Structures are given as C-alpha cells and as structure tokens.
C-alpha cells in the first residue's frame, strides 16, 4: 500500500507536469488538444520513470533492462490516455457541452483517472516485478 501511495504522489507530480504542458500547448496554439495531451504525456513520462525507478520501486535493475520496458509501458499508457482523451473530448464538444470549463481539461482528468490504474499494474507486474 505504501508503494501505491508513493506511486500516486509521483504520478500526481507527473500529472501536474502533463496538465501544465497540455495547457501551454493548447493555449499557445502550438498543438491541437489531442496532440497536446499526447505530447504532455510523453514528456512527463521521463520524470515519472526517474522518480519511480529511484523512489517508488527503489530499483537496482539496470536502465538497459528497465527503460525499454518502460518505453513499452509508456506506449500502452499513451495509447490508452490518448484514445480516452479523444473520446471524452469528442463527447464534450458534440454531445455534453461544458460551458463553465474547457472540455479538454475535463477530458484529460477522466482519461488520466482511468490510465493511472492501468499504468500502476504494468509497472508493478512487469517493469519492477522483483521490487
């Protein structure tokens, strides 16, 4: 349980970074919402890897063994996050308008909530299974 709480804390910081990047990319019109979500996810994943490696799982595995697995895990999480984000954004923009808040932010909250559980399982069971 302690490990999961630490994982959530580090994930929370990663998520704040992802949201900050999402907002910057969207509001500056550098990227569309879906691409901004994906870019924020990928970029925040580097911090997530470093912190989980050192603190959550206290891994002594070599990076050459764990990082390729992490890249696959990020691809799984990225695919899940991006598909969910796009679906929720489509729903909010076309069927459930949210006049009081930007739909892309609500879509990201929902996509993140679902993706975090999947990510923990992938990390715990596959990447750092011996720790």
Written description of the protein model:
This protein has 131 residues and is mostly helical. It has one domain. The chain has helices at residues 2-27, 33-56, 63-94, 103-127. Helix 3 (63-94) runs antiparallel to helix 4 (103-127). It is elongated and about 50 Å long.
Query: What is the helix fraction of residues, given as a range?
Result: over 70%
| Sequence of secondary-structure elements | HHHH
**Structural domains: how many:** 1
Largest sheet: none
End-to-end Cα distance, whole Å, is 13 Å
Mean pLDDT: 90
Helical segment tally? 4
Beta-strand content bin: under 5%
Uncertain segments of ≥5 residues (pLDDT<50)? none
Gyration radius (Cα, Å) is: 15 Å
Q: Structural class, from helix and strand content?
A: mainly alpha
Strand elements, count: 0
> What is the approximate shape?
elongated
């Amino acid at each position: 349980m302690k490990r999961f709480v630490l994982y959530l804390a580090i994930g929370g910081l990663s998520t704040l970074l992802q949201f900050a990047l999402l907002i910057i990319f969207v509001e500056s019109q550098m990227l569309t919402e879906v691409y901004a979500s994906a870019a924020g996810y990928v970029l925040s994943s580097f911090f997530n890897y470093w912190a989980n490696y050192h603190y959550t799982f206290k891994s002594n595995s070599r990076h050459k063994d764990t990082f390729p697995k992490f890249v696959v895990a990020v691809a799984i999480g990225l695919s899940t996050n991006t598909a969910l984000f796009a679906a929720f954004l489509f729903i909010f923009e076309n069927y459930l308008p949210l006049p009081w808040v930007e739909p892309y932010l609500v879509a990201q909250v929902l996509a993140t909530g679902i993706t975090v559980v999947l990510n923990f399982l992938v990390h715990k069971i596959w990447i750092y299974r011996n720790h």
